[in-house]
Write a structure and sequence with these properties.
Elements (H helix, E strand, L loop, with lengths): L2 H24 L4 E6 L4 H18 L4 E6 L3 H13 L11 E4 L2 E4 L1 H17 L1 H13 L16 E7 L4 H16 L3 E7 L3 H14 L11 E4 L3 E4 L5 H10 L14 H31 L2 H16 L4 H33 L3 H30 L12 H15 L4 H33 L1 H4 L2 H24 L4 H10 L1 H24 L1
Parallel strand pairs: 1-2, 5-6
Antiparallel strand pairs: 1-3, 3-4, 5-7, 7-8
Helix pairs in contact: 1-3, 2-4, 4-5, 7-9, 9-14, 9-16, 9-18, 10-13, 10-16, 10-17, 11-14, 11-16, 12-14, 12-18, 13-14, 14-16, 14-18
């Protein structure tokens, strides 16, 4: 008799005795089985915060048994009970409770539902006992370990992510596999690591995983062509995969990729990130464009044009010229900063300092924007931190007044737009410069950074163009100003989101 078969028989006897005790207890008080793990924080929360009060209230009505799943027999008991109640694989987590035909798993379900099921039992104990007997009479599905016997090494790659709930359950299944099946070698790969991300992508492309699932977790690969994704991972599914390769074995496919395959995976990741980056850069530009600093300048400009008697068509022409000057000025400033950052980031240490420092700066600006949000809610917009100093506001207004009087409206608007852009940069640059740093920091964007500069600046002037458009169609600048003033807090929250997003992406670019 093999050691594996002997262990299986021991486990089966222990499980049989445990189930027998449940049925014996059921003749008097029903059994409540609590499965938990020592290293599960949710289990600890339920044990210390919920169970003492719950047992004090209802404990006289059942026999409570704790089963720590690091013991093989208790873990197999849990698997048996899950099999009996056909518990969904995707919902399995710790802690778990079995009571009178019902299985609850996860801290939230136990806290919210366990008392309800106990009350149901107390209201109708005969019905609950009938369900319990029916469930315990079912024969659980056990995996035939002997059928998986192999002399060949079977390599598997397991991709996980820290904090992933499903990954915790998958890791437990791995421990079970390695404990009973010595020829299985599983390499654990954190998908947040850059090299592992490339490896997962190459394996995903080779196995034909849908593009939107290639970097999902948890995920298993075996033999190069077979894989299991989160919702499909179970002991039975992995056992079937292992049995398939029990004769031939399975090499570590991820160790034999060609340079072309690795390059293909890198290109795929860059293209995926570019599609996301377009929205990130566009959102940053749009958020910057509705910055209170920029919007106040736009409204003053429109109001002044109306005050000096400019007609609608003239306002439209002047507005387009003003917007074009701002676009061109911001683009050229961004281009200069882009080239500077590219030069500096040729030195790896300097790159980390620039990206890391800018990431911290973004976080500071994000919290300051939240501070400004609360000030705006209190009606104290003058106390907001992220705004132009008074002397710059006056200088901008003076520039607009002077250049708007020029005989050539277009020339005046172009000069005003250029000068206002430079003066206003102290405020709007808070979003612009970190976004440019992000463009340089991500390898997939660096080659297309100029295109992303254009995208950013197009979206930056969209609010300005909208203001000129609504004024052209008859909405007063005073009405727009009232709308803006009533939504300053919302704008500040949007800017906080922009700062946090750009800061997080910069941190990712620098250190991950």
């Amino acid at each position: 008799m093999s050691i594996a078969l002997f262990k299986k028989m021991i486990f089966m006897v222990l499980i049989f005795l445990l189930m027998l005790s449940v049925q014996v207890i059921a003749a008097g008080k029903p059994a409540m089985l609590f499965y938990y793990s020592y290293d599960c924080e949710h289990c600890l929360a339920v044990k210390t915060d919920f169970l003492p009060g719950f047992i004090e209230k209802y404990g006289e009505h059942f026999e409570f048994t704790e089963l720590e799943v690091s013991h093989d027999a208790y873990r197999d008991s849990l698997y048996a009970m899950e099999s009996r109640v056909n518990f969904p694989e995707a919902d399995k987590e710790y802690p778990a409770v079995y009571f009178m035909g019902t299985m609850l798993e996860g801290e939230n379900d136990i806290r919210l539902k366990l008392e309800y099921y106990v009350r149901q039992y107390l209201a109708n104990p005969d019905s609950a006992q009938h369900v319990n007997n029916e469930v315990l009479a079912r024969v659980p599905v056990f995996i035939d370990i002997e059928a998986m016997k192999s002399d060949k090494i079977i390599h598997m790659a397991y991709f996980f992510k820290q904090g992933c709930k499903e990954c915790g359950r998958a890791s437990e299944i791995i421990d079970w596999l390695e404990s009973i099946y010595g020829v299985v070698e599983i390499e654990r790969l954190d998908i947040q690591n850059k090299e592992n991300k490339i490896t997962a992508t190459a394996l995903g492309i080779q196995a034909g995983i849908p593009e939107n699932r290639i970097l999902s977790t948890p995920m298993f690969f075996i033999g190069g062509d077979d894989y299991l994704l989160a919702e499909d991972i179970s002991r039975n599914a992995l056992a079937e995969m292992i049995q398939k390769y029990s004769i031939s074995g399975a090499p570590a496919a991820w160790e034999s990729f060609t340079q072309e395959e690795i390059a293909g995976a890198e290109v795929f990741l860059k293209e995926q990130f570019k599609s996301f980056a377009f929205f990130a850069v566009a959102f940053a530009g749009l958020g910057d464009g509705i910055n209170p600093c920029a919007f106040a300048t736009i409204l003053f400009f429109v109001s002044y044009l109306g005050m000096v008697g400019r007609k609608k068509n003239e306002i439209l022409i002047v507005g387009l010229s003003f917007a074009s000057a701002i676009f061109a000025t911001y683009f050229l400033v961004g281009l200069g900063f882009l080239q500077f950052i590219k030069t500096m980031t040729n030195i790896e240490l300097m790159a980390k300092i620039i990206f890391g420092g800018t990431s911290v700066l973004c976080l500071i600006f994000g919290f300051l924007s939240i501070y400004d949000y609360f000030k705006a809610k209190e009606g104290k917009t003058g106390d907001m931190m992220l705004q132009l100093p008074t002397f710059l506001k006056k200088r901008i207004h003076k520039t607009i007044r002077e250049k708007s009087r020029m005989k050539s409206m277009v020339a005046g608007a172009l000069i005003a737009g250029f000068m206002v852009s430079i003066l206003e940069f102290a405020c709007t640059g808070q979003v612009y410069l970190p976004t440019i740093t992000f463009m340089v920091g991500v390898e997939g964007l660096k080659s297309s950074a100029i295109l992303y500069l254009v995208i950013y600046n197009i979206f930056f002037i969209v609010p300005l163009l909208l203001v000129f458009a609504v004024v052209y169609f008859g909405v007063s600048s005073q009405a727009i100003s009232r709308i803006m003033e009533s939504n300053v807090g919302t704008v500040k929250l949007i800017l906080a989101c922009v700062f946090f997003a750009v800061g997080g992406l910069l941190f990712w670019a620098a250190f991950i």
